[in-house]
Fold:
Amino acid sequence: MANDQVLNQFTQSFEEEKAAVTKKLKIGIIGTGWIAEAHIESYKEMEDVEIVAAADLIPGKAEAFMKRYGVEGVRFYPSHKEMIDNEELDAVSVCTYNTAHAIPTIYALEHGVNVLLEKPFTVTLDEAVEVCRAEKKSGKLLSIGFQPRGDVNMQMIKKIVDSGVLGKIYYIQTGGGRRRGIPNSTFIEKSTGGIGALGDIGCYSLDMVLNAIGYPKPLTVSGYKSAFFGTNPETQYADRFHTAEENAKRFSVDDFAAAFIRLEGDIVLDFRIAWAMHLDTPGDTIIMGTKGGLRIPSTECWNGTVGGEMTLYHDLAGVMMEEKIPILKDSSGKGLFYKKIRSFLDAIINNEPAPVPTSQILYNQAIIDGIYKSSEIGKEIEVEIPEI
Ligand SMILES: NC(=O)c1ccc[n+]([C@@H]2O[C@H](COP(=O)([O-])OP(=O)(O)OC[C@H]3O[C@@H](n4cnc5c(N)ncnc54)[C@H](O)[C@@H]3O)[C@@H](O)[C@H]2O)c1
Structure:
């Protein structure tokens, strides 16, 4: 081979390498409401990202959103469909309300676009199954937006379980809630929220413990849900657009849910979640095993961390021990939303599995769906998850 041929080879590969490094991921945002703010703030910090398109059903909303965040050169669309039909996108953030999670996600996957979908996965198990099938067929990456997974103290729960110090896990109690904390907006109507506290914050409490124990399959669910606070003008409140009376009338989802769930591996899960109640907390999260028990102080885990020092109970040489697990500090200097979005993009770039895979969250959704259905018929149901 002549000398210049040899050199040209190197020039070419160097150019390709440079192109690969400077290639920006083209991102579209579907739904430019409240949570899209956290997405755009994180994307804006990333040098390898270019926000090229945004869609919202409400005319002018996406334009005003991008103007507010000083993002220029973005093309705007009236819905996910026009955006995906007209753009060459590497990925989309699906930031629509719960009842509009499945359709844009399926459409994006069918058109070869990777998806970061906000939680909860969907409203029903049937929708989640359809999304999983579209994901499988597409070969694209779909990750569900559970940012507390990036929290070091949450990760510690899983590390404790994985260490074996608890032995075989047989009983878990989880959930939580607020004395008053109904979010209103699109969360409280069935047509947009679909499910209430159960899907909004319940999915996080379930993920915290199910992820820690390796997401065993749910077998049966006996569920309950109610809406005493959301439908009562005295415990509702006014927002920018509605009086308390109007919000009470609009309220058509659950504000409290509870369930007893049997999981594969002879594990039972006792769960309760509240947007509002006459209590400070419905209890700590506890994980009981044959060798040890873990108490996680009542936590608003949806805000991303544990509610205080955890306590590990176990026996040592016949002595009953109690050990405090100190609260860990995150040294990454990055917020949970940044980490959630970065891990999604890195998985695309490095051809790795989704950071929060649907194979796990399908079980989370099956439990939520089971609680809803069991509550409707007033008895325990068997969870049936179709083949994907
Ligand atoms: N991860 C978190 O911490 C967190 C926090 C809050 C909300 N969320 C989730 O984010 C989602 C959105 O919540 P939000 O408060 O931003 O809702 P929102 O109602 O403020 O915004 C949703 C937007 O989506 C738009 N939209 C709906 N369907 C569309 C479609 N097909 N194409 C384009 N736009 C469409 C609506 O017009 C609306 O502007 C919910 O599922 C919620 O559970 C997650």
Summary: The mean pLDDT is 95. Residues 30-36, 55-58, 61, 79-80, 95-98, 100, 104, 118-119, 145, 147, 185-186, 200 surround nicotinamide-adenine-dinucleotide (CB under 6 Å). The CA atoms of residues 31 and 95 lie 5 Å apart.
